[in-house]
Q: What sequence folds into this?
């Protein structure tokens, strides 16, 4: 993924205060008003707090849709281990 990024374009944007400010304003305007911090992470429309495992939130959503993956612990198995 990172190899496919155009780092010179990212650097140029970072070094251009007007362009970077414009992009921040655009992102702010597209951000729902109930977001009170960043990063704001949602999985299937459900907020994932900083105290929650992002992997487990993704796996839980995946399991709910019938998926299985070796990196995921079944939600019931996770609850038994707590």
A:
């Amino acid at each position: 993924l990172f190899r496919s990024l155009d780092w010179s374009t990212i650097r140029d944007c970072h070094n251009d205060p007007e362009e970077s400010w414009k992009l921040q304003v655009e992102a702010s305007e597209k951000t729902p008003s109930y977001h009170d911090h960043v990063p704001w992470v949602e999985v299937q429309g459900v907020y994932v707090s900083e105290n929650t495992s992002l992997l487990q939130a993704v796996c839980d959503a995946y399991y709910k849709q019938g998926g299985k993956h070796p990196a995921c612990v079944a939600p019931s198995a996770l609850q038994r281990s707590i």
Observations:
- The beta strands are 41-43, 46-48.
- The mean pLDDT is 83.
